[in-house]
Structure formats: C-alpha cells, structure tokens
Amino acid sequence: MKVPRTRLGAWQAALTALLTAVAATVVAVAVATAPAGAAAGTGTGYLRTSGNEIVDSTGATVRLTGINWFGMETDNRTFHGLWSSNPWKSQIDLMADLGYNTIRVPYSNDALKAGATATGINDFVNPDLIGLSPLQILDKVIEYAGSKGMRIILDRHRPTSAGQSALWYVPATPESTWIADWRMLAQRYAGNPTVIGADLHNEPHAEGTNPNATGACWGCGDPARDWRLAAERAGNAILEVNPNWLIFVEGVSCPSGGLSNVWDGDPSNDEDCGWWGGNLSKAGQFPVRLDVPNRLVYSPHEYATSVYHQDWFDDPDYPANMPAIWDKYWGYLYKQNVAPIMLGEFGTTLVAGVDKIWLQELMKYLGTGVNGMSFTYWSWNPNSGDTGGIVKDDWTTVDQNKQSILQPYLIPPVGGGPGTGSPSATATPTGGTASCTLTYRQVNSWQGGFQGEATITNTGTSTWSNWSASWTMPSGVSLVNAWNATVTTSGATWTARGPDWARNLAPGASVAVGFTANGASSATPGPVTCG
Q1: Where would you tag: which of 42, 184, 274, 297 has the fewest CB atoms within 10 A of its CB?
Q2: Residues involved in catalysis
C-alpha cells in the first residue's frame, strides 16, 4: 500500500565559533548516582546496545521515553513555539516534569549552513536567544536538557527546508553533504553524552511505480536507492568521528522501493508496504552492518487514522490484529533479540475512537517499565497538522487525553547531565572521611588536538559539598570554552568548577569528564586529591 503524506515535521553558544576550526573544544560531564539507580533515568555516560536493550556505561538498562520537538527542519530553522509566551527553558522543564526523558530534534541541512538565520522567536520571553544562529540555539537546548538528565537524538528530517524526500539525497543536498554534515555534528558534540546519536534520515519511502520507481528500497543492492547500504555508509562515517554515538536507522515503506508494486488493480501483485520509514521487514535478512559493534538501533514510525487510513484499521478483528502487523514490520527485531527498537514517531489527534484504541494498544505492545521498547512521541508541537501535540496552542496547556495514555509508560529523567571536572581534583567533605580515585584515558587525537576523558569517584564516606578540578596542559594548549562549568586558566593550569547540581557527590558517585584541547596531541594527568 502506498502511503503519500506530509507533516510539519553539547555545547554552549560559544562553541559555534569553532564550527570551522580544526577541532572543537568541548568539556562534558555526566554526574552519576550509584549504578543501582542509573536505570531509573537515562543512565550514566554514553549509551550502547546489548541484544534488544539499550544500556548505559555501567551496563544498566535504559529506556528512552521521549518527545519530538520540531521546527529546525522548517523555514524557521529553529524550534517551533519559541514565538509563544512560554520561554524555551520552561517548555523543557514541562517536558521533564511530564516524564519525557529524551528529545528527538528534527533538522534540515539548511539549518546547518553558514549564515543560517533562526526566525519566529519571541525576543521578549527568550532574550537569551537574540542573534543566535540555529546551531547556537541547539547548543543551548542541549546544554539545558542535559542539566536535567535528559538525552538528545538528532534527526536529519529533511535535506532542505522545502520538504521531506524519498531518498537521503536531493540535487541541492547530495549524499556527500549529508554525510559531511553528520560528521560535523558528531564532532561538535563529541565528549557530550547528552547527545546520544544520529537518526540518519527521516522516513525513506517508495516513490513511483513499476517501471519508474525512484524511491528507497531495502536490500535491493542499488547503491543509489538501497537505504540499508546508505545507512551503513553514513553510520560508519559518523562512528569514525564519534564512536560513542548510537546510530538510529528507520525503515522504508516498500522494500522494493515500488518496483514490484504495479497497482494494476490485482492485489496479488501489490507489495507489502507500510508507513514511510516504518517497514523493517527485510532488516532481519539484510541487517545494517556497522564497524563499531553495539551501536545500531532500529527506529520505525507508526501512525493512526488521523495520518492515513490503512486497511488494517478496518479489519473485523481490530485491534487484535495489530500486534501481528507490528511484529511483521519491526517488532520481530526486538522479540528475536536482534537489536533495540526506538519507535521514533507515532501520534494521533485522538479525534477518532479507533485512534484512541490504537494508541492504547500500541503502548501496551511497547511494554511497561525499563525493559519496554523505547519511543519518542510525535509531537510536543500543537502545530503538527495531522497529529496535534502534547501541548495545546498556547504551548503551555497539556492535552491530558493524550498524556494520560502515555503517562504510565514514561520514565522521567533523574539527576543532572553534563557538568565539569578534570584529572586533578580537590573536595570539601561534609563530615566523615574524604577520598577519591581518578581514571583517565585519551579518547582520540588528530593533528593539532586531542580528546581526553577522566572519571573522579568519591570513594569516601562523606558527601562532598563542593569540588573543583584542575589539570596542567603542555605549553600552548588552548581551551576555548567550558560547557556547563566555569573554567579559569592560569598559564598551563586550568581549573573548573561545576554548576550547583554537579557539586554534591555522594559516596560511590562519580563525575566523568571529557575535554578536547587544541595545540597538543596528549596530556599527562596529575594526581587526584580530596578534602
């Protein structure tokens, strides 16, 4: 069945100046509670996969229960709703309070271009966004979301702001640009575990019918049309730059791209097609092969009648027929322990009774608790024409009809995200004994720069009421910006102080610190001292 449809759809601002530099300077920290509590939120450090689960750096299972906040893929080139009377930080606060622990951010390549301008911003309620580029605004959203323990998935939604495309490239945005922009983003946010990965291209789909099909296929072997092969090329290129990212791969609509779907009135000739981006039925036979193991997440889309009236909604057995349909298109990958599923988009206006049943049954199918399948609901925005949003037109009032169905499945973010620290630390204890350990590793290096990572762990019996961290770098090394921290430099000595939420470290808790430096290829960490 062919499904034509359309839909409206880290680092702080200072790092944007580094976009064209040889290396971006980044400092990132994940502040973790003891591993036993990690699964309650979005986990500790970068994420990876294990069978059909997403796990954190400690091995604890993580479930992403998120929301799509679109706009950066449109002519505005930034998040919609910034024109409202509800400030951007308050909107993220509300997302977190409702239980959404992840934000999927759609963008178009137009928003990444030099000189791109963000429009549709209420300067009165968002004065801190005045004059910022789309990427600088994204930096601020990532920083603030990370401070609340949330995660960010970047979604290449459109090759240009003009609209979606069946293939991952168009004349104005060739494959080379698609991959180069992804590599830029992967390097820009390297060392920042708030940004967990790349949703490579939104909703590849069939276009045309036999013999003139030009759309995306899966496993057909044509490099210009085979989405599975393109996903491998882009995913591996990204992992060369940032091996810590997850790679989210959507399905297609028709595995052949439409070549076998002749639409001659004879159903026996019709290919088994589904939602744009929602058909992963061939992924078991033709899996996506990435050079870095445990990084692949399959991310189908699924919608209700408010988007398109599929035949299965008219089945006499509805909704009992739906689990078998979901199994066929994508659920089998999860049930057979092939890979995790992150349902990247699903939504409805809930106007039709059949849609309410659909949403209720879909959430049951995804499962409850931390072991259920991950998801990001479409959408936060009320201006999605075929689904509406979680918030209403004032961007403040919650649509309780939708929220009440989703609420039992949401796992709120816990704790803070990125902060700061270093290879040498001091701390002031609140009583008891103070001791700590430090582990350090060099993550990456290139001509003119390097990336290091250190973890400071409170091994004492007291909670640190404050801490600062410092390290000595070779002469000539520069740190342009410290994300989520105040950093002072005195010659080759850098001292960082974390924000309020990052200062109190309970016994057993740790601060993981990543930094990228220009002007050297390595550094020797100093000793760690506490109290």
Answers
A1: 184
A2: 203, 345
